[in-house]
Amino acid sequence: MATPPPPAVPDRALPEPATAAGREGLAALLAHPGRAVVALDFDGTLAEITDDPERSRAHPGAVAAIAALAPRVASVAVITGRPAATAVEYGGFAGVSGLEHLVVLGHYGAERWDAATGEVTAAPEHPGVTAVRAELPDFLRETGARPGTWVEDKGRALAVHTRRADDPHAAFDALHTPLAGLAARHGLILEPGRLVLELRPPGMDKGVALAEHLRDTGATAVLYAGDDLGDLPAFAAVDKLRSDGMPGLLVCSGSDEVPEVATRADLTIPGPPAVVALLAALAEATAPTA
Ligand SMILES: O=P(O)(O)OC[C@H]1O[C@H](O[C@H]2O[C@H](CO)[C@@H](O)[C@H](O)[C@H]2O)[C@H](O)[C@@H](O)[C@@H]1O
């Protein structure tokens, strides 16, 4: 097992959540870290947003900060729209000392990678994805998709990206309704994200994935950090759990691109470097005292 270098993070102070519920969530995590789950989105939260999704990599301090925190909490889970194996690769999560119990829930929870086995388990593939894969190039041409629009084939889902289009927001807006129709015709759903429209199977989202993971681990407190629309079901799951009595902290990895997430969060911090600093600060605050 490789030992990660110490986290390259300057600021180890714990930020204060802006809401009472968030402060209660943080206090519960600090009081009983061994019963808390820390769940993290990947793109925009652990990794900076880039024009080319294949070039995304976790922040250089992310692995060390997670490895420092993971042994002190019930579980750290990465919950992502990426295929689980892609997040493991781009995160550098495999074979790292301290991450033996890391779980990566990919494709919004349809896939699960467990560091203990190094294997991915997955829901059956959806036939609609095969049909859309065949139809999508002609569909985009006929719909007049703007130059620079391109398709990421994720295996179990297809993501139409507009970040590299000549006018990214106009390209996104123009494709939203037609792609929702295409998805529905094939029994899929449209998952909008940061300049991406994903056609994927229904029945799973980050909220369901998070709630199941919390049940599996017997957690009594939760922190969830995300940046995008696909994270809102996890925010809703934490809100529901809070109304049922489980303390939780919702963190927005700050972005002007998705104000809906910042509005719902207890704590907004400026992107992956600040998320890594938060994880390092949590590791320090939960370290056993000598
Ligand atoms: O759930 P996440 O871990 O946040 O993954 C959601 C999508 O992330 C990727 O797209 C986003 O990041 C790209 C790289 O920074 C960026 O170019 C794109 O505009 C963003 O939407 C990924 O490519 C998708 O497959 C994920 O579903």
Give a written overview of the molecule.
It is a single chain. This protein is α/β, with parallel strands linked by helices and 290 residues long. It folds into 2 domains: 20-123 and 204-285, Rossmann fold (3-Layer(aba) Sandwich); 127-200, Alpha-Beta Plaits (2-Layer Sandwich). It is built from 9 helices and 12 strands. It has helices at residues 20-31, 62-69, 84-91, 127-143, 168-185, 206-217, 232-243, 259-264, 272-285; strands at 36-40, 75-79, 103-106, 111-114, 119-122, 150-153, 158-161, 189-193, 196-200, 221-226, 248-253, 267-269. Strands 5-4-3-2-1-10-11-12 form an 8-stranded mixed beta sheet, with helices on both faces. A 4-stranded antiparallel beta sheet has the order 6-7-9-8, with helices on one face. Strand 4 and strand 5 form a beta hairpin. Helix 4 packs across helix 5 (168-185) and helix 6 packs across helix 7. It is globular, with a radius of gyration of 19 Å. The model has no long low-confidence stretch (mean pLDDT 95). Bound molecules: ligand L263DTV3. Residues 41-44, 49-51, 53, 56, 80-82, 152, 154, 159, 161, 163, 193-196, 198, 228, 230 line the site of ligand L263DTV3.
